[in-house]
């Protein structure tokens, strides 16, 4: 195992997770490329349908915020080609699955959907199906699509999104599946067009890829080695978002606290301080940060930067040192607890959330109990908990696994019970408190109820009207629940300003 990890770290692991078809050039160092996207999309104009109506696309997005953001980029490219967006599968001429490979059940869902939607092709012969994102980087998936889902017209990966306009044209003119997946990212593309989903919150990539090679995780293979964007490009993007009125900016990376390691000229703490100084910036978030390399310098930068909110997502994965070692995590239980202690000391009211895997191969009841005890000791505000899912070609997939699925499900339930009790207790302490909420818009189920978030990322629901969207309001918490807080607006200074 050690050897595999070493090879992978050195970029010498050739295990076929990523076939390369079509044209590709792969220099060793990632070039920074600024495409003339307008020219690129102009070259591949989709035109109008025979009845004069526009071609329409729908993207189904699975997985993490990185994928959500890639979807915004692909929507930008498709708009540039003359496509319009539709929410309805029946109206779509291009249905694109932007997939996640982290767990098997997410993959099964995608294949289920592709199967279910096949008949749409009989009604609309022009309909194209595409599959992209992390699943597309897996050789097994590529093979499966070609053999079992031949009605998928286009497969491309995470490293060649910029090829989308040309690939759509190839797919339109081909009776076979067009498959172009690059196994590395030869270039870091700047100046993407983006159709952002939200008008209050925006994502900004700061770093791509991951070098950590946790033994369970497919991400380093599907997203490649760590590459940081240049600070000036990031700052320019954030500044333009602020100018457009975005108020809640999330800096995205698979491993943000490694930001700048490959550049050698800056680091994540430095970047946060610079983003914090952008005139007019409101809230700054980041995800995902990991326990390793979470330096005192970074804690100080978060604590001292007024716009950086007090929410840290800090995946622990397990509370057992034995399991952490088998996971190839670079932290121990003691290191993690000490880090939490330092963070809490420096950042009062910090909201801590985490990711936990149960049922990792070899996890005993005693190992699991150590995870539960860590959860009780840290008292996270929220935890995303998962049953381990073996991922092809990752080291842990070949580890011996003794616990049964029933045992794993039982552990997950017990862990969730403990965490839910803690989340509720924390939220109950907020009853009667007045919190600052940035209003995102109407809640999902009731248009008279607005939803927004505290700086700590707690979801708050309250009656209000649309003029509050994108503004700060002060909400008194009246009904705390496990996963959200209900309340009523007691002051809306920014809204009055607008009305008067
Ligand atoms: N099985 C289950 N959960 C996983 N995660 C990553 N890989 C796996 C896997 N093979 C979880 C980790 C990670 C989160 C994004 O997904 O907890 O932090
Ligand atoms: Fe996966 Fe670990 Fe990288 Fe996260 S840090 S993406 S868990 S390998």
Provide a concise account of the structure shown.
With 500 residues, the protein is α/β, with parallel strands linked by helices. It is built from 16 helices and 21 strands.
Description:
By secondary structure, this protein is α/β, with parallel strands linked by helices. It has three domains: 36-180, Methylthiotransferase, N-terminal domain (Rossmann fold); 188-428, tm_1862 like domain (pyruvate-formate lyase- activating enzyme); 434-495, Nucleic acid-binding proteins (OB fold (Dihydrolipoamide Acetyltransferase, E2P), Beta Barrel), CATH 2.40.50.140. 34% of the residues lie in helices and 21% in strands. The chain is built from 16 helices and 21 strands. It has helices at residues 2-9, 37-43, 65-80, 104-117, 120-123, 139-148, 164-172, 219-223, 231-244, 268-276, 296-304, 321-326, 333-346, 365-378, 405-428, 493-499; strands at 31-34, 56-61, 84-85, 94-99, 128-133, 154-156, 178-180, 187-190, 201-205, 207-208, 227-228, 248-252, 283-287, 311-313, 351-358, 382-387, 434-442, 449-453, 459-463, 472-480, 485-491. The strands form six sheets. It has a six-stranded parallel sheet with strand order 3-2-4-5-6-7, sandwiched between helices. It has a five-stranded mixed beta barrel with strand order 17-18-19-21-20. Helix 10 (268-276) runs parallel beside helix 11 and helix 14 (365-378) packs parallel to helix 15. It is globular, with a radius of gyration of 23 Å. Bound molecules: 5'-deoxyadenosine and iron/sulfur cluster. Residues 210, 212-214, 217, 219-220, 254-255, 290 line the site of iron/sulfur cluster (SF4).
């Amino acid at each position: 195992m050690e050897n595999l990890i070493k090879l992978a770290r050195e970029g010498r692991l050739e295990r076929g997770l990523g076939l390369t078809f079509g044209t590709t050039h792969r220099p060793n160092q990632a070039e920074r490329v600024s495409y003339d996207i307008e020219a690129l999309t102009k070259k591949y104009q989709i035109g109008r349908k025979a009845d004069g109506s526009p071609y329409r696309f729908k993207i189904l997005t699975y997985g993490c915020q990185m994928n959500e953001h890639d979807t915004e980029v692909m929507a930008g490219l498709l708009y540039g080609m003359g496509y319009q967006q539709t929410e309805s599968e029946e109206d779509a001429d291009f249905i694109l699955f932007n997939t996640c490979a982290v767990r098997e059940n997410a993959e099964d869902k995608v294949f289920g959907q592709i199967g279910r939607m096949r008949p749409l092709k009989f009604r609309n012969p022009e309909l194209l199906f595409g599959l992209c994102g992390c699943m597309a980087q897996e050789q097994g998936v590529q093979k499966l699509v070609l053999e079992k889902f031949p009605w998928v017209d286009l497969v491309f990966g995470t490293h060649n999104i910029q090829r989308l306009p040309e690939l759509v044209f190839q797919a339109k003119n081909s009776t076979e599946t067009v498959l172009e997946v690059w196994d590395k990212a030869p270039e870091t593309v700047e100046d993407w067009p983006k159709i952002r989903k939200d008008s209050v919150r925006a994502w900004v990539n700061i770093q791509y890829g991951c070098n950590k090679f946790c033994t369970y995780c497919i991400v380093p293979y599907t997203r490649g080695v760590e590459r940081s964007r240049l600070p000036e490009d990031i700052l320019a993007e954030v500044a333009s978002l602020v100018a457009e009125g975005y108020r809640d900016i999330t800096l995205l990376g698979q491993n943000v606290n490694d930001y700048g390691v490959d550049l050698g000229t800056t680091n994540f703490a430095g970047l946060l301080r610079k983003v914090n100084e952008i005139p007019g910036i409101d809230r700054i978030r980041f995800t995902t940060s990991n326990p390793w390399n979470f330096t005192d310098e970074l804690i100080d930068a978060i604590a001292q930067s007024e716009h950086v909110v007090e929410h840290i997502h800090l995946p622990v994965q397990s509370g057992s040192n034995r399991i952490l070692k088998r996971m190839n995590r670079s932290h121990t239980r003691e290191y993690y607890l000490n880090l939490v202690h330092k963070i809490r000391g420096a950042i009062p009211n910090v909201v801590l959330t985490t990711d936990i895997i149960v049922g990792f191969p070899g996890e005993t009841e005693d190992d699991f109990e150590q995870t539960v005890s860590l959860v009780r000791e840290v008292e996270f505000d929220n935890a995303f908990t998962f049953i381990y899912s073996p991922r092809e070609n990752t080291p842990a997939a070949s580890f011996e696994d003794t616990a049964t699925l029933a045992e794993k499900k039982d552990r997950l339930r017990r862990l969730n019970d403990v965490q839910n009790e803690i989340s509720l207790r924390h939220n109950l302490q907020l009853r009667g408190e007045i919190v600052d909420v940035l209003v995102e818009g109407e809640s999902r189920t009731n248009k008279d109820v607005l939803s927004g978030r505290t700086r700590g990322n707690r979801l708050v629901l309250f009656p209000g009207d649309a003029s509050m969207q994108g503004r700060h309001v002060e909400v008194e918490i009246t009904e705390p629940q496990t996963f959200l807080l209900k309340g009523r607006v007691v002051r809306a200074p920014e809204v009055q300003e607008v009305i008067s």
